Amino acid sequence: MPLLILKTLPFLFTISSATAGALPAQSWFNQQGYVGPSGGRIIACHGYGCVRRQQISVDGTWIDRARAALKAGQASPDAERRALGEVVRAYTAYLATSLGGKPDVPGSPPQMSGVYGQMDCLDETTNTTSLLLVLQEQGLLSHHIVEYPESRGFFLDGRYPHFTAVIAEKRTGAAWAVDPWEKAPGQRPDILPLTQWRQDS
Question: I want to staple 73 with a disulfide (CB 3.0 to 4.6 A). Which of 39, 79, 87, 193 is the partner?
Answer without folding.
Answer: 79
